[in-house]
Amino acid sequence: MQMPQPVIETNLGGLELLNRGKVRDMYALDDSLLIVTTDRISAYDSVLGSGIPWKGQVLTHLTRFWLDYLSSLTPHHLITTDVDKMGEALAPYRDVLLGRTMLVKRADVLPVECVVRGYLAGSGWRGYQEDGTVCGVKLPEGLRESDKLPEPIFTPATKAETGHDENISFERMCEIVGEQMARRMRERSLAIYNRASDYAAERGVIICDTKFEWGLVAGELTLVDEVLTPDSSRFWPADTYEPGGPQLSYDKQFVRDWLDESGWDHQPPAPKLPVEVVRKTAEKYLQACRELTGASPAD
């Protein structure tokens, strides 16, 4: 598979750059926002010295797919992903923006990550081993790593600019955004997870867990940011699923494994990745996209 040159950073001339995150560059465009998803990849809270070809296009493709599929459950912020409909100011940058750009409504983003877990993994598994709970949610005894939970659970987290997000209780979430808003966010997050999980299961993919972001657009609770991508979710192939330990996944595990073996101390600057690790990671992102939507940006 021949890989294109990854897009690491964007520069859109006279447009105001509002934020350059680990993966996304956000610009002001009239009364809307332009979100450009680059091919940057992060691990251990650092942006690595290599990009992953097609990554930004995969994340955008999946987000657009899910927002359309889930639109009957909630309003969302997406206006269009068609660069040709975003105005003449972007015409000089069309080749860079194509397939990786969303024009979205401006939203007042609520400062809580809405995490939904359907299986016991990651920090949830670590918490369960300590005291039988996940973010204050009591679970049955005797569960194994990667076991399916009796029902999906909602485990919010505070958002952090740097470092890891911190898991919080639902009661703490109520203090941050208000009880009524917290209940609405929990209800919608669980409904979206359940609808998406059923869809994915029909296509041989398990959605272990995921996180959503919500904001207010003209006072209306609105789904924002990326949705159900390999960066915001754990996707497992159903045909290799076997509880009792870690699972194969459609994400950047090849990157984490190489970093763990490289001797890097997790302090900047992050190292560049070998070509083979980049290739395998790109293939995983593309495979997840194909399994869930039937196509990928590389097809």
Tell me about this structure:
The chain is an alpha+beta fold. It has a domain of 132 residues: D-amino Acid Aminotransferase, Chain A, domain 1 (2-Layer Sandwich). Helix content is 30%, strand content 27%. It has seven helices and 17 strands. Strands 8, 9, 12, 13, 14, 15, 16 and 17 form an eight-stranded antiparallel beta sheet that branches. A five-stranded antiparallel beta sheet has the order 1-2-3-7-6. Strand 15 and strand 16 form a beta hairpin. Helix 1 runs parallel beside helix 7 and helix 4 crosses helix 5. The longest helix has 24 residues. The protein is globular. The mean pLDDT is 94.
At a glance:
It contains seven helices and 17 strands. With 299 residues, the chain is an alpha+beta fold. It has a domain at 109-240: D-amino Acid Aminotransferase, Chain A, domain 1 (2-Layer Sandwich).
Tags for this model:
299 residues, alpha+beta, 5-stranded antiparallel beta sheet
Please write out the topology.
Layout: E1 17-20, E2 24-29, E3 32-37, E4 40-43, E5 46-51, H1 55-69, E6 78-80, H2 94-97, E7 101-105, E8 108-109, E9 112-119, H3 122-131, E10 133-134, E11 137-138, E12 148-154, E13 157-158, E14 166-167, H4 170-177, H5 179-202, E15 205-217, E16 220-224, E17 233-237, H6 253-262, H7 275-293
Antiparallel strand pairs: 1-2, 2-3, 3-7, 4-5, 6-7, 8-15, 9-12, 9-13, 9-15, 10-11, 13-14, 15-16, 15-17
